[in-house]
Write a structure and sequence with these properties.
604 residues; nine-stranded mixed β-sheet
């Protein structure tokens, strides 16, 4: 074959090869398509989502399966209101009886499990043991995140608790490693909340160790603001301002100019408090407090911000008061309370369901999750900010405290009408001060402490009817305040607030009104006080401190052991005034039942 024939043969082979490779139905193309379809089929089979995944549930992102036979990493997204948001653990706080996880992008879900890693070795699967426990509870929190409460880790397990959802895997783990923020904050040393107030921010922080009941020098303190997403090494604080006030656990600072010009930017901004040492202070010596706080605009969830305010509201902080709160709200609503702010301090007795039921019955009750223990004073300051746009007056009281108006005689007509107090009488009393005494910023009412009154079990008709014997002399007082009259420090000692210059307080005569404080109830109710006190500066019952204080039961000691004469204790004066008033005014005329009996089943 000559050279020209060989050349023509090579060109023919090349043309055939070229046409074959560009044919739309070539063997190679068919193989590629077949392989791709097979891959899709296998992917749909192995990544099958159950029906529950398409309900509004809490799910996790970047999840690695907890299976020895399958270490494949998958990514699940939350499906809620048509939006897909990845879930992540942003912060952990270690409490005496649980670990609190602050989680973004999630809602309540019963399928979550808490995951614990053994201390030895690195954070890598296979190198050490891990354990799982059921979640204690899940709650929505502050409109920006959710909280998940996990049991404390067992011995030899790390406090870096993670989460697992069903069979999907562990949150924050990638290719066997824990990623993102692994910091665990102590509840005793952390900035835990922040609220917008005009062009300032109020930061709530534990660990400053400021004196109780006094305003402190704000000059050593500053606020630091972090923008952007949380990084692997935590928040990077880009801006700072000097503190305006500091008192107890509350620090107030101006907003940076770039934020104050557009307050919408403040929502969700991370913030903490800085402290400059008093001895040889230098700027680079400033210590930043650990923080889980984000700025929240408390006015953003107010439904009456631009409308006429409620005349009288009530704020309280509770722990496991589901059995008591119905009577307390129904009674005071009869007296004219129009709005309720319930700060729930880690209750686990389904009080949220009771509050929802009251709301369905047209009682204006809102529950606000407040997971921070030993912070009642700070919580009341927080509630005062929340109520400022909605309420002319706010009463700060506990669920075992009841306003009572004794029978009024002609010489007691200064603040109310003759005879028995009519419906809405408490609201009318504060409204009278609103219109006639613009310099009155706080109304104080004396408290009478009632004892078990000879009972051994909770009274079936409620505390107002069942407990009728008390101590002779009043103990302390409780206050109704005007939020706009409070000092900028928001300083309070639970029983009363500090007022701005130009405002005064008024002590109501006991002939006008008193508070029946059902402080010493039957033992099965009273012993719950030994668990923990909510006030910051009041010693817990089991602590050997201030045993003679009026904040404790005289002679009881520090152990939850019932004294043999408990039913007869704290009984010096028999006082049936409120019992008679309740039975005469609130009982159903046909059945004799009280409002809280008909619903709660106390008659059974």
């Amino acid at each position: 074959m000559d050279y020209s024939d060989q050349r023509r043969k090579r060109k023919r082979i090349l043309r055939e090869s070229y046409s074959s490779s560009h044919s739309p139905l070539s063997v190679r193309s068919l193989l590629i398509c077949f392989s791709f379809l097979t891959f899709l089929y296998l992917l749909s089979y192995t990544s099958h989502f159950p029906a529950s995944a398409f309900r509004p549930v809490l799910v996790v992102s970047n999840l690695s399966l907890l299976s020895s036979s399958n270490s494949r990493t998958v990514k699940a997204l939350q499906v809620f209101d048509g939006l897909s948001q990845p879930l992540k653990i942003e912060n952990r706080v270690f409490f005496p009886d649980h670990v609190l996880l602050l989680v973004s992008g999630g809602k309540k879900n019963q399928e979550l499990e808490c995951v614990y890693y053994g201390k030895p070795g690195k954070f890598r699967k296979g190198n050490f043991d891990f354990g799982k426990k059921k979640v204690l509870s899940v709650d929505e929190y502050d409109g920006l995140s959710s909280i998940v409460r996990c049991p404390l880790p067992s011995v030899n397990y790390s406090s870096v608790v993670s989460l697992k959802l069903g069979k999907n895997g562990i949150l924050g783990e990638k290719n066997g490693f824990l990623v993102r923020n692994q910091t665990v904050n102590s509840w005793e040393n952390v900035a835990y909340a922040a609220a917008l107030d005009g062009d300032t921010v109020v930061v709530f922080v534990k660990g400053l160790n400021l004196r109780a009941g006094r305003e402190s020098d704000p000059s050593p303190f500053s606020c630091h603001f972090g923008l952007g997403k949380l990084g692997k090494n935590g928040t990077k604080y880009m801006m700072s301002t000097k503190a305006l006030t500091a008192a107890q656990e509350v620090v107030r600072c101006p907003l940076p100019k770039s934020i104050s010009k557009n307050l919408d930017k403040a929502q969700g901004v991370r913030v903490t408090v800085g402290l400059t040492p008093r001895v040889h202070p230098r700027s680079h010596d400033r210590v930043l407090m650990p923080s889980v706080a984000k700025i929240f605009d408390l006015g953003s969830d107010s439904k009456k911000r631009n409308d006429e305010k409620y005349e009288l509201c009530v704020c309280t902080m509770v722990w496991n008061q589901a059995s008591a709160i119905r009577e307390w709200i129904m009674y005071h609503s009869w007296l004219g309370v129009e709005k309720w702010f319930i700060y729930d301090n880690n209750s686990d007795d389904r009080i949220d369901e009771v509050i929802q039921e009251l709301h369905r019955e047209n009682y204006n009750v809102t529950r606000h999750v407040w997971p921070w223990i030993k912070t009642q004073e700070a919580g009341f300051s927080h509630c005062a900010l929340r109520a400022k746009d909605e309420c002319n007056w706010v009463s700060f009281m506990d669920v075992d405290e009841y306003f009572y108006f004794p029978y009024s005689t002609p010489r007691h007509q200064l603040f109310r009408t003759l005879g028995y107090a009519p419906q809405n009488s408490l609201c009318a009393l504060v409204a009278n001060f609103s219109s006639s005494s613009s310099n009155i910023g706080e109304i104080r009412t004396s408290c009478h402490s009632f004892g078990p009154s000879g009972l051994n079990s909770p009274p079936p008709q409620g505390v107002t009817v069942g407990y009728t014997c008390r101590l002779q002399s009043p103990e302390r007082h409780k206050s109704i305040v005007r939020p706009d009259a409070l000092d900028s420090t928001l300083l309070n000692v639970v029983h009363h607030f500090h007022l701005r210059k130009g405002f005064n307080y008024l002590n109501l005569p006991q002939s006008t009104a008193v508070i029946n404080h059902y402080k010493y109830q039957v033992w099965e109710v009273f012993r719950a006080k030994f668990y923990r006190r909510v006030a910051t500066y009041v010693a817990d019952w089991q602590e050997n401190q201030n045993e003679g204080s009026r904040d404790r039961a005289p002679g009881l000691g520090t152990e939850a052991i019932e004294p043999p004469d408990w039913p007869q204790k704290f009984c010096e004066v028999w006082d049936t005034g409120l019992r008679d008033f309740v039975l005469a005014n609130l009982a159903d005329v046909s059945t004799g039942l009280l409002p809280w009996e008909r619903i709660s089943g106390l008659t059974g």
